Amino acid sequence: MSCSPFDVKDYFFGELSPQDRRTVDLHLTACPKCQEELDALNLTQNALLMVRDEEPPSRIAFVSDKVFEPRWYQSLWNSGPKMAFASSALLAAAILVHGFELNRPVAQVMKAPQPAITEAEVATRVEAAVQKAVAESEARQAAKLQQVAQQQKKMEVDYKMQMLQVADAYRMLRRMIPPSYRAAANFVPGEGQ
Q: Is residue 150 situated within a structural domain?
């Protein structure tokens, strides 16, 4: 981006004819914006030239290399007849154990019947829970109110201390100002003339 009729980048890279180059030279002496752009291009070129050339490594490990490795269960599954024999033996053992479990008598546990809860008991429990929640809420509100009152008292004390400090500073300044200046400061134009 440049305000001259030619692009400063073309000038920087030497892509202009000699006559156009002279025109841009004259423009650069008068335009600080274009001169700043040229300085930025020089700075960028210098920064790039300072970066040393390095040879890329011959073997670069990619994250995707691990994607193509077989999973642990795939390597076990493909391990051949040993794995097939082991899995069939395990399946046969599981079937036998399950068969013995089905033939074993199951002890029935009798559950005691739960007493029915009446509406009055429910209402009593709900009322107690509501009263407890209200009491806890009121206690929290009282604690917050007390905390706010303490903060307000502290602010009032701080305010009074600051006012006393200001009054002391004012008195000290009044003593430091000569009486003739004080009389001139009390003079209001238009009064007493």
A: yes
In a domain, 92, yes or no: no
Task: At 40, list the tokens.
Answer: 């930025």
Note whether 4 and 27 are within 8 A (CB): yes
Domain count, the chain: 2
Q: Which domain holds residue 30?
A: 8-46
pLDDT tens sequence across 65-85: 666 676 777 776 666 677 777
Q: Is residue 133 domain-resident? A: yes
* Residue 2, pLDDT score: 55
**DSSP state, residue 66:** G
Give the C-alpha separation, 97 to 104, whole Å.
11
Mean pLDDT, all residues of the chain: 81
Q: How far is CA 59 from the centre of its chain?
A: 38
In a domain, 66, yes or no: no
Going from the C-alpha of 10 to that of each of 3, 6, 15, 19, 78, the distances in angstroms are 13, 7, 5, 13, 64
How do residues 159-173 score in pLDDT, each as one tens digit? 999 999 999 988 888
Tell me the whole-structure pTM to 2 decimals: 0.30
DSSP 84-133: HHHHHHHHHHHHHHHHHHHHSPPPPPPPPPPPPPPHHHHHHHHHHHHHHH
